[in-house]
Amino acid sequence: MSLTAQLLTALVALLHLGFLVLEMFFWTKPLGRKIFGLDPQVARDSAKLAMNQGLYNGFLVAGLAWGLWLGDKGICLFFLGCVVVAGLFGAATVKRSILYVQAVPAILAAIAVHYF
């Protein structure tokens, strides 16, 4: 795998590590509420759901790190594909900006992994 592919895949993993931290630990805090545009009551009411979502982001991070550690294109492509699907679904059902924050970086990383 090329250095570009590795760096882009690592970037996607780092983004999802950040999402994990925001969703699991900062959802109800001012930073999390500001980033996700939540009022305090909505944040409190949805905190357990956000923690669960953060955990799933952790699984994506683990899978991408595993693929990078082994230098395995197939593992990286599988987990990047999961990120793309989640990003497309999130953009369609929650907020369009998820497309650019989540799906586009994963698409670029997958292209780099596959072709370089």
UniProtKB/TrEMBL annotation:
Q: Does the keyword Methyltransferase apply?
A: no
Q: Can you name this protein?
A: DUF1304 domain-containing protein
Recite the UniProt keywords alphabetically.
Membrane, Transmembrane, Transmembrane helix
Does the keyword section mention Membrane? yes
List residues traversing the bilayer: 6-28, 49-69, 75-91, 98-115
Record's InterPro entries?
DUF1304
Any Pfam family: DUF1304
